[in-house]
Task: structure prediction
Amino acid sequence: MQYVINLNRLFNNIKINGGFQPEIITSIFINIRKLIESKNENKKYKVLMLYCNWLAHSKLERESTGLLILENIMNIIFESINRSNIEEIVVKISQEFSFTNLYNEINELFDVNSISKLILDKSTWNTVIKIIIVNIDKVPINLNNNKQEYLRLFEKAKHANQINNNFLIPKSLYLTIDNGKVFWNIEMQELFTLTGPLVM
Result:
């Protein structure tokens, strides 16, 4: 299959020339997405498809896994509303970005299709993650333009007996880099933003 050939050729060039450049990472994920779509396996590789789409667009509004992350974050906020363990909340929200699942899904896809696993080597994986984060810096996953999904979460907040239903509904989320550190940012409907360090 052409996309498998393209990926192995990219990894071979990296071996010859050395180093992962941002444009090469982008090309790798473009070919990964095309491979998954050609095999109709979008649902099998949900986290991987999220990052493929995140890297390819200036914003995401109908990406199902991204919207699920927003809902999961809302649930974390629900559960934590009367607690004061900030570290626990930071860790739980960080886990929603699923870099471990991203690794596992790439590993499975490459296994099945006999693709070089150079990208998964311990010496390169952290570099790959850093390049991904730089490329999706400030690229939002938005809820508000998806009216049906917003209304569903509004009803969920309503049934949770919150005084202000909008208060706990995320509007968008995105990652930012500040002085070399990575932070998640969650814009809420009530025009304030929750920010915390991304725990890797």
User: Anything to note?
Assistant: The mean pLDDT is 84.
